[in-house]
Amino acid sequence: MSKLYIGNLPPDVSESTLRKLFVENNLPCRAIMIKRGGYAFVDCMDQSTADKAIDKFNGCNFFGTPLQVEPSVVGAATPGKKPGNTNDFVEITIEDEDK
Question: Which of 1, 89, 76 lies closest to 39, judged by CA?
Fold first, then answer.
């Protein structure tokens, strides 16, 4: 998978600013989605590019904050949180309407 989670972004960062960071480091990407809460998802061109971005940007200072860069985990309940934690499960009870 070549999608990355970018965490700990400054609140005023834009898609164009983040794209510029990737382009200036010769790491082309297809799409960047900035989310509220200081994180983004970046779809890299291939796995090699994603791996290089992780090596280059994880922990690097970006406008005063150290970036958190890791592979995006599909289906995680919270950005940056790995699936498999039993605390992620919620018990749901379905009541029969005929009663």
Answer: 76
- Please tell me the distance from the alpha carbon of residue 53 to that of residue 2, in angstroms, as a whole number: 10
Nearby residues of 74 by Cβ (< 8 Å), 6 or more positions away: 1, 3
What's the CA gap between 65 and 2, in Å, rounded? 24
Question: How far apart are the C-alpha atoms of 71 and 87, rounded to whole Å?
Answer: 22
Over the chain, what is the mean pLDDT? 82
Strand ranges of the sheet holding 29-35, from the earlier edge strand across to the other edge: 29-35, 39-44, 3-7, 68-71
Contact predicate 72/12, CB 8 Å: no
Q: How far is the C-alpha of 16 from the C-alpha of 18, rounded, in Å?
A: 5
Q: pTM for the complete prediction?
A: 0.72
- What pLDDT, in 10s, does the model give residues 28-49? 999 999 998 899 999 999 999 9
Element (H, E) at 78: none
